[in-house]
Amino acid sequence: MLISLPNVAIWNVRLELLFGRFRYQDTGTLDRTHIRFFTRRSFRELLASCGLEVARSRITPGILRPFVPLIKLLFSRFTAPTPEANSSSIMDSRPY
Question: Residue 56 in 3-state DSSP?
Fold first, then answer.
């Protein structure tokens, strides 16, 4: 089984929390469709309670992800829409 979880402890979420903000967004870690958040420990505890264990774990750094909407907004000013615009890539996220 492959499981992918958003890192709610990523730097940009921590920064927002520091300023008292926890706003759901259209994309990213605080995507409106994310209904539950985990720490690494709480997720492993959930798996253990289901009789499962982690065989392999990989962490993908989210250094650029918070900037994707801004990049898309800037990029969209210089490009025309294409038929591929209906794909589900990260660059198809809403610009704001």
Answer: coil
> Measured on CA atoms in the order 33, 35, 40, 46, is the torsion positive or negative?
negative
Grouped pLDDT means (10 residues each) for the chain, 96 residues = 82 88 85 85 92 86 68 72 53 48
Domain ranges, residue 83: 11-92
The verdict on residue 52 lying in a domain is yes
Nearest to 29 by CA among 64, 56, 71: 64
21 assigned to some structural domain: yes
State the amino acid at position 27 in one-letter form: T
7, 31 contact by CB (below 8 A): no
**Burial class of residue 6 in the structure, from the number of CB atoms within 10 Å of its CB (0-12 exposed, 13-18 middle, 19+ buried):** middle
